[in-house]
Amino acid sequence: MTKTNRYVPVLLLVACALTFAGCATALAPSGAYTDKTLYDADLVISTSYSVLHSFVTFEYTNRATLQAANPTTAVAIKAAADNVRLNSRAWIASAMALRDAYKTNPTTDGASKLTAAIAILQTALSQATQYLVQTEPAATATP
Amino acid sequence: METAALLALINGLLGALPSLITEVQTLANKGEITTEQQAEVLAKYQALEALVQAGPFSGPEWKV
Q: Is the minimum CB–CB distance between B39 and chain A shorter than 8 Å?
């Protein structure tokens, strides 16, 4: 596997998780969950912090390299990372609060609000994953 | 890419892997989410809850 695509399998797994979270799969009886909505929420929320943290760390650590490789792209990546820096705490906190509210009182309205919060996280994860795939080759291009 | 950056990225992605593997295993199990997989997701979520309370957004990488 070349340097330029060594993260692709991992990032494809991220895409799989984002794609399949929410599919109509069944929970095995006597497990920790009895509600698929709650399971999906916990899966996405717990995955989101790891990926978003990886993204902002990648941008922070490689800022100079990215700037030297492609200034225009570096500006776009910095903007995306700053958006994550400014909002991810609120995104995750909101999702966790709505998750807790839904767990306490599993109504249709609560499920809708939780799903909307999860969708915001999934959008951020998709963007972060996209930038990691696109920019990792540039960051490794320097000797 | 600097070694530190590479390690940070790999560590972060590895942190996400258990949840991702859980999803892949679910697909392999023809759609059923096993009790073990459910326990893994719950444990990961509870770990994040503890992390959030400890203030995980305070490092230099989180500063705009």
A: yes
Nearest to A25 among B4, B21, B26 (CB): B26
3-class secondary-structure state, position B58 = coil
Distance from CA of B58 to the nearest CA of A (A): 10
Say if B44 falls within a structural domain: yes
B6: in domain: no
Tell me the β-bridge partners of B46.
Answer: none
Mutate to test the interface with B, among A46, A77, A133, A135 (most CBs of B within 10 A): A46
pTM attached to this predicted model: 0.74
Q: Indicate whether B34 belongs to any domain.
A: yes
Q: What Å distances lie between residue A114 and A40, A44, B39, B50, CA to CA?
A: 10, 11, 21, 20
Question: Residue B47: which domain range?
Answer: 18-55
- Is the residue at B12 inside a domain? no
Domain residue extents for chain A: 36-140
Q: Give pLDDT, residue A136.
A: 62
Contacts of B58 (CB under 8 A, 6+ apart): none
| Mean pLDDT, rounded, of chain A | 83
Pairing of strands A26-27, B32-33: parallel
Is the C-alpha dihedral spanning A120, A38, B58, B5 positive or negative? Answer: negative
What's the domain count of chain B? 1
Which of B1, B20, B61 lies nearest to residue A57, judging by beta carbons? B61
